[in-house]
Amino acid sequence: METMKSARKNDPEDVGSDLSEQIKAATKDSHVRAENTALMLDYQKGKITLPQYKLLLCSLYEIYRALEEELDRNASHPAVAPIYFPQELARLQTLERDLEHFFGSEWRQRVIVPAATVRYQERIRRIGAESPDLLVAHAYTRYLGDLSGGQVLGKITQRSLGLSSKDGLSFFSFPGISSPHRFKQLFRSHMNSIELTEGRREEMLREANTSFLLNIQVFDDLQKMLSITTTEAEDQSEGNAVKSNNMFPSLPSMQFTVGVCVALTTVGLGFYAL
Ligand code: HEM
User: Fold this and answer.
1) What is the rounded distance in angstroms from the CA atom of residue 233 to the CA atom of residue 220?
2) What is the CB < 6 Å shell around ligand 1?
3) What are phi and psi of 271, to 5 degrees?
4) How much is the pLDDT for 238?
5) CA gap 191, 79 in Å, rounded
């Protein structure tokens, strides 16, 4: 209680008592860091490439799979229920459509993610099992981000990749939301209706920063994967293997195999090139 009060007193932005205002203020620096990752800077410069976008989709798929499964499972939890908007927000099916567009009907075998994505997924699943109220922080970070800067990123993706239709861009589209601005206000007001003790509120702000950090680590890992694939497999055609010791196929059995191989040999493994 005391910590929160003094934190607020020292905050130059005079943050009020609403969770939505507090979470925005608490994650302001993390947001700047996320915007300044190499991947997001490439985005802002309109330099996103198809391999980058495809890899990003794979990680987003795994992140939203965990997030939306945990939100569904905890839909009636008193903290989760107010921000549970599957009709308007759910991204999993949009990501499946986009992945199928780029990888074909066998896309599930082609989903590869870096270690940071596995950590993010694990964090969401643990929160869902042990502290479901904190799923609010994860939903906030991803969904309000998608409805904010994410809307611009969608347009940039279409332009950068020279896509003439919206195929492959479902992720950015929210047909159930006519005004992202008004929907974000609704989401914020629902967040503000959640009853939290000061202790849980502090936890929530911490978790939101953890969520941003996990996103940053995913973006950084994706850039590393890309530098490996571009230096080692530049111009390789689809289907050729590339080397990496930081990529995880998303199937658990495959992850285990990869883990064992990496541990035993520390040599790179073969994956399909993007
Ligand atoms: C190129 C990178 C990015 C740009 C240009 C960008 C831009 C923006 C802008 C302009 C807003 C304010 C919109 C408004 O006030 O209505 C915003 C809000 C937000 N962004 Fe980003 N963003 C980027 C990356 C990210 C990332 C990577 C995340 C998290 C994973 C994120 C999460 C959020 C959240 C949660 C909000 C809502 C803040 C609030 O109102 O509480 N953003 N972003």
Assistant:
1) 19
2) 24, 31, 34-35, 40, 43-44, 140-141, 144-145, 148-149, 212, 215
3) -135, 160
4) 45
5) 8
